[in-house]
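A reminder from the course coordinator: this example appears on the midterm review sheet, so study it carefully.

Given structure:
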């Protein structure tokens, strides 16, 4: 949960814990101080009452001990109603319970008699419970106020960082360099803004060099490939060529065409702009599929193979037509190349395309490495980048590609795309 990990939340939590701890310590100290003060006041009151009664007793041996709502006195011998719990007490201070009530008791010997003075602490303990409740409520309120103050203060502190993050997030690699540091103070945040600005400047320079490189590659590679394709078409139209030469020229034309497609795919993947991959207008997947199937039909020449195309839906994708053709071309070309006889079934559904062949199949170890760059299987005759390109294009467009194979029985490739 992102809110729980935010600096504002952690700041508020830290302040709440700190405020709660401080208020708890203060409340505990205040409670102990007040309790100690109350004990001293009770003890002083008991001492004063006891001394007063002993003086009265010295003047008048028949003077009765105090008997109030919270104060009781006894003398032994002399008090017929002396509680049994007091009879065995030695001189000193102590707490005890009589008749289910808490008492503070002082016992003192004087003039051959033992005096007892008791203070009923029932009301005092009730006040202590009420006071503890007030302190607990104060701790909770203080914690909440500390949390609110922490969230507010953390928000004020990190707001410049949030602003910097927002501005950096809104920058594109192809945008012109944007000054960041000038809008921030000369402190640690300003240093961070200057570091971002320097990094973005270097990154934008790198992207610009890459754009220039891809443009140069596009021109330098496409031009000679176009010349080769044109020359091959002219030669193929020459009726004087022998069948053997026509076969070789056709191979040259196919190789040049494949190289053109590979160059286009590499250029698409090398660019940052998504518009090179995603087109504004949706393309019809069936049209691209049938075009690719026809384009690679020469791979099935002299092979007893039938191609079964089953169209169950008419999906349209917002993707550049050549990009989809590259992906389907690689998958179909592999099925054609590694199948010597049998049937190749191609099914088009609303969200996927499956291609099943009856070829030689692949081992599990080969399946695990099939999408790695430059990996070539035992029967591969290519450069080992076809399926790697397919995987990268699929990742770029949010698609997924999957291979399942049984050695000796064939392979099933599936392209799952987002419609």
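Designed residues:
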């Amino acid at each position: 949960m992102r809110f729980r990990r935010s600096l504002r939340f952690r700041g508020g939590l830290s302040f709440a814990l700190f405020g709660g701890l401080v208020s708890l310590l203060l409340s505990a100290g205040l409670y102990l101080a007040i309790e100690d003060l109350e004990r001293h006041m009770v003890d002083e009151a008991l001492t004063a009452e006891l001394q007063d009664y002993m003086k009265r007793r010295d003047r008048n041996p028949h003077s009765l001990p105090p008997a109030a709502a919270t104060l009781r006195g006894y003398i032994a011998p002399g008090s017929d109603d002396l509680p049994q719990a007091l009879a065995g007490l030695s001189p000193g201070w102590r707490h005890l319970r009589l008749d289910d009530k808490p008492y503070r008791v002082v016992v003192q010997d004087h003039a051959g008699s033992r005096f007892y003075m008791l203070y009923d602490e029932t009301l005092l303990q009730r006040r202590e419970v009420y006071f503890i409740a007030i302190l607990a409520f104060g701790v909770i309120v203080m914690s909440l106020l500390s949390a609110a103050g922490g969230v507010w203060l953390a928000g004020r502190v990190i707001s410049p960082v949030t602003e910097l993050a927002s501005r950096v997030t809104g920058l594109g690699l192809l945008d012109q360099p944007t000054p960041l540091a000038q809008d921030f103070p000369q402190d640690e945040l300003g240093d961070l803004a200057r570091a971002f600005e320097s990094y973005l400047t270097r990154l934008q320079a790198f992207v610009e060099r890459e754009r220039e490189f891809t443009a140069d590659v596009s021109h330098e590679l496409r031009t000679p490939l176009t010349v080769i394709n044109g020359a091959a078409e002219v030669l193929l139209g020459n009726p004087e060529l022998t069948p053997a030469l026509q076969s070789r020229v056709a191979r040259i034309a196919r190789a040049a065409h494949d190289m053109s497609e590979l160059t286009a795919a590499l250029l698409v993947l090398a660019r940052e702009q998504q518009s090179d991959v995603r087109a504004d207008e949706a393309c019809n997947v069936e049209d691209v599929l049938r075009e690719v199937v026809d384009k690679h039909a020469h791979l099935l020449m002299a092979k007893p193979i039938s191609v079964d195309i089953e169209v169950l839906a008419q999906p349209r994708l917002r993707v550049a037509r050549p990009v989809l053709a590259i992906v389907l071309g690689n998958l179909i070309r592999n099925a054609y190349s590694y199948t010597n006889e049998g049937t190749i079934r191609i099914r088009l559904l609303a969200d996927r395309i499956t291609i099943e062949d009856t070829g030689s199949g692949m081992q599990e170890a080969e399946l695990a490495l099939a999408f790695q760059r430059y990996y070539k299987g035992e029967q591969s005759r290519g450069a080992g980048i076809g399926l790697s390109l397919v995987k990268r294009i699929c990742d770029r467009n949010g698609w997924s590609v999957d291979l399942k194979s049984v050695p000796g029985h064939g392979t099933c490739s599936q392209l799952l795309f987002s419609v």
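The chain has three domains: 2-145, 188-266, 277-416. Residues 274-279 have pLDDT under 50 and may be disordered.
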